[in-house]
Design goal:
The chain has helices at residues 14-27, 49-64, 85-97, 115-120, 134-152, and strands at residues 2-8, 32-38, 72-82, 102-107, 123-126. By secondary structure, the protein is of the alpha/beta class. Helix 3 crosses helix 5. The chain has one domain (2-39, 50-152): Alpha/beta knot. It has 5 helices and 5 strands, in the order βαβαβαβαβα. It starts with a strand and ends in a 7-residue tail after the last helix. It has a 5-stranded parallel beta sheet with strand order 2-1-4-3-5. Its EC number is 2.1.1.177.
Length: 159
């Protein structure tokens, strides 16, 4: 299985970079993970709906340029489907079993994901009804992917 993560914005926080590196190292025996950062669009504090749609559209074009045609796309959205860690592991296992060995996770920017990216998505996934900083969410996603591989292999991992 090959996993790509396409994320809006540059990760600057050293502590998050270190956490991400740790999970990438832990995942290396199970899968190859590639993270692509796409530039975020400058967004004024008091945006109109039209401004927000334009920001999403521009970020969406950048995101789509990093998604291969044969990839199964999972967008991370607050209104997506919520799964337990075990169900998430089962989903990844079934994707691999049925020939979807390339998975792309999409982490949108601060105003969300464009309609075009949502249309390309095969599954919308939510980890919570809460909102998380998109920079921090990369590490949360990697931890859950690592947990899923441990579950799939029947290996111990804290609950």
């Amino acid at each position: 299985m090959k996993i790509d993560i396409v994320a809006v914005g540059k990760l600057k926080e050293k502590y998050l970079q270190q956490g991400i590196e740790e999970y990438l190292k832990r995942l290396s025996p199970y899968t190859k993970v590639h993270i692509a950062e796409v530039a975020d669009e400058k967004a004024p504090d008091n945006m109109s709906d039209a401004n927000m749609q334009e920001v999403k559209r521009k970020e969406g074009e950048r995101i789509l340029s990093h998604i291969s045609k044969d990839s199964y796309v999972i967008t991370l959205e607050i209104n997506g489907k919520m799964l337990t860690s075990e169900t998430f592991a089962d989903k990844l296992d079934k994707l691999a079993t049925y020939g979807k060995s390339k998975i792309t996770f999409v982490i949108g920017g601060s105003v969300g994901i464009s309609e075009d990216v949502q249309k390309r998505s095969d599954m919308a996934l939510s980890f919570s009804k809460m909102t998380f900083p998109h920079q921090m969410f990369r590490m949360i996603l990697l931890e859950q992917v690592y947990r899923a591989f441990r579950i799939m292999r029947g290996e111990p991992y804290h609950k």
